[in-house]
């Protein structure tokens, strides 16, 4: 969507696209001929109807939490830029596909398309979840979007199960925070992933830090929390059979 544009207006623009142009865009996206089912004159109308259905059934009911997750990803990318510069952020959007090449060149995929000159155009970066892949879209050569998946715990991947013993020891909510901190996260990210309030997350982090299970470090403007070695041992022991402390390299 364009800045300030409502969803209904965006869908109306999709409906107004000429059928031949819609088919041309799909051929580019698929890097080949269209399947018979998509080679039709009512393609824009059907695409608009699909967008409305996805929004109504798969996005709107969960939008409050999804928005928190997306905002948390933006915070994480900003912190990463503070640590390693924007080149590191661009390289990590879709590892192995997106890559900053230097000299104002940005690789977005492995397709053998000729380079596209976009000087003066607007480029936006759009996180999505749940999704493992990304894509690129553009609007009349004036606006480009690089769509990328939220990474790690923000994307809903990974094992977040709280061992029963750890939950009994620390309390389920606090134990859940400790489990999630196998990778450094900000309070904003923890709030997004757990659904707990910012105050509750802050209290859990305070207790865990005082117990020596969690540490924190500043990354640019963000503060990242992560497990200490003692925190790792506690989580690993709780997750292992019979609560035995697993051997560590």
TrEMBL record:
GO terms for molecular function: DNA binding; DNA-binding transcription factor activity. InterPro entries: ArsR-like_HTH (IPR011991), HTH_ArsR_DNA-bd_dom (IPR001845), Metal_resp_trans_reg (IPR051011), WH-like_DNA-bd_sf (IPR036388), WH_DNA-bd_sf (IPR036390). Keywords: DNA-binding, Transcription, Transcription regulation. Residues 164-239 form the HTH arsR-type domain. Pfam families: HTH_20 (PF12840). It comes from the Bacteria. The keyword Transcription applies. This is Winged helix-turn-helix transcriptional regulator. The lineage of its organism: Bacteria, Bacillati, Actinomycetota, Actinomycetes, Kitasatosporales.
């Amino acid at each position: 969507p364009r800045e300030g544009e409502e969803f209904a207006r965006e869908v109306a623009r999709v409906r107004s696209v000429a059928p031949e142009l819609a088919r041309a865009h799909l051929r580019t996206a698929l890097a080949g001929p269209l399947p018979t089912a998509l080679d039709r004159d009512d393609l824009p109308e059907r695409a608009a109807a699909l967008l409305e259905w996805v929004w109504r059934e798969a996005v709107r009911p969960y939008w409050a939490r999804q928005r928190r997750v997306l905002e948390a990803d933006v915070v994480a990318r900003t912190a990463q830029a503070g640590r390693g510069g924007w080149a590191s952020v661009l390289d990590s959007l879709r590892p192995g596909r997106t890559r900053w090449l230097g000299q104002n060149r940005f690789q977005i995929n492995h397709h053998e398309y000729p380079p596209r000159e976009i000087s003066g155009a607007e480029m936006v970066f759009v996180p999505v979840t749940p999704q493992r892949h990304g894509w690129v879209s553009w609007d009349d050569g004036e606006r480009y979007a690089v769509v990328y998946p939220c990474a790690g715990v923000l994307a809903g991947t990974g094992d977040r199960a709280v061992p029963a013993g750890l939950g009994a020891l620390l309390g389920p909510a606090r134990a859940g925070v400790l489990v999630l901190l196998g990778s450094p996260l900000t309070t904003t990210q923890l709030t997004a992933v757990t659904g707990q309030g910012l105050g509750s997350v802050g209290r859990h982090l305070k207790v865990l830090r005082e117990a020596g299970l969690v540490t924190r470090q500043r990354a640019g403007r963000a503060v990242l929390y992560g497990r200490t070695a003692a925190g790792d041992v506690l989580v690993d022991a709780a997750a292992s059979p019979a609560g035995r402390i697993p051997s560590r390299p």
